[in-house]
Amino acid sequence: MSQKCEFQYNLLPFETIKEATKGDVDAVEEVLKHYDGYIDNLSRRKMYDEYGNVHYCVDKTLRDRLEAKLLKTILEFKIVR
What we know:
4 helices
């Protein structure tokens, strides 16, 4: 008996990407929202309190830099047919 493995990817619609590259504010916000969790994960840092306990916190500066880099990439992206 074979099992079929199905993956479902949560992809952004092409039209959203196309509009975001043109500078549409709503589309850009949708792209940023789509990658919000990924950016949070990338900007998470290990911190220690005064008792040596480990805590994970989002580095706000790094998060802002990653978001700015994504925004720059969106606006510079060229769709080639």
